[in-house]
Write a structure and sequence with these properties.
The protein is α+β, with helices and mostly antiparallel strands. It has one domain (about 1-290): Jelly Rolls, CATH 2.60.120. The protein is built from nine helices and ten strands. Helix 8 (about 260-270) crosses helix 9. The longest helix has 14 residues, at about 45-55. The two termini are about 30 Å apart.
Length: about 290
């Protein structure tokens, strides 16, 4: 599309003003806004229950909390990025996308322990049934090395739909840990599970999914009978007492500056290009951002 090419080649992606024009209702580097919404608390009983679920099945799912975040506007921004041919992870230039995960710090701490870090591994999806869209193909984020000897996680992924995710617009599917014969073993690249054990995970906007990084999962293929795209975001985290799975590790209670966000987004575009088609022009833009 000519419009997409014009934006990619001519827009100043290093300018906050450019991004503000795309989503004037959202925030970028607003210190007051970043500190105005509380972190969700998790009591020990709930944390213990979720830890047992994580060890047994490798994941848990929670209904949407009271986010006090504009989920519809966030999903609309992702649609705008997609419309203009801008990689959707640029949504993480906005404060709201960081707050999705910062607000869950206590929940993540219940799985990884105190002193955990954000990993420089995140993404945003816009799965459009009208374009035969699909999520990422079946994979394990880090594999068996992301588990401790007792089966608890060294690292986790948190995935949040910003729109309804259903079986026709590409909801998540996974194989529960206790139904996966090669889960947690050096043979985890061999898939020997039974098809009836695959679990679909439809969800309403704002629901919270957390899985350890040894679980086999994927986003399904959409169907044109559904007209609503699936919009979602995910972030990865690791415990503080294990070697880095990726760098730079980031303190979980701080949000990076705008310039750091730009660098991190460019890193995502390049490090995940094996999972999606990356246009040469987009690759050059990402490489240019990383060069500064």
């Amino acid at each position: 599309m000519a419009t997409e090419a014009k934006i990619q080649k001519g827009a100043d992606w290093a300018s906050r003003d450019f991004w503000h024009r795309l989503a004037p209702a959202l925030h970028i580097g607003d210190a007051a806004y970043l500190t105005s919404t509380p972190i969700f608390e998790v009591n020990e009983e709930t944390g213990g229950t979720l830890r047992e679920l994580m060890r047994a099945e490798g994941y848990f799912q929670l209904p949407a909390p009271q986010w006090n975040l504009p989920l519809e506007e966030m999903a609309a921004l992702v649609a705008t990025l997609d419309k203009h041919g801008i990689p959707t992870p640029f949504a993480f230039l906005f404060d709201e996308f960081w707050l999705l995960f910062v607000k869950l710090n206590r929940l993540i701490e219940s799985q990884l322990g105190p002193g955990f870090f954000m990993l420089p591994d995140f993404w945003v999806w816009f799965i459009d049934p009208a374009r035969d869209g699909r999520g990422w193909t079946p994979h394990r984020d880090k594999g068996y090395q992301a588990l401790r000897e007792d089966g608890s996680p060294k690292s986790v992924t948190v995935w949040i739909p910003l729109s309804e995710a259903n079986t026709l617009n590409g909801c998540m599917y996974l194989v529960p840990a206790d139904r996966d014969p090669t889960y947690g073993t050096p043979q985890d690249r061999e898939w020997k599970f039974a098809y009836p054990d695959i679990r679909a995970l439809p969800a309403q906007p704002g629901a919270v999914f957390c899985w350890n990084q040894a679980v086999l999962h994927w986003g399904s293929h959409s169907n044109p009978r559904e007209t609503r795209p699936r919009v979602s975001a995910a972030f990865e985290f690791q415990a503080g007492d294990v070697p880095p799975f990726n760098t730079p590790l980031m303190p979980a209670d701080r949000v990076p500056t705008f310039n750091s966000r730009l660098q991190l987004v460019a890193k995502q575009i390049l490090q995940y290009q094996h999972m999606y088609a990356l246009a040469p022009e987009t690759r050059r833009i990402a490489e240019g951002i990383l060069r500064g």
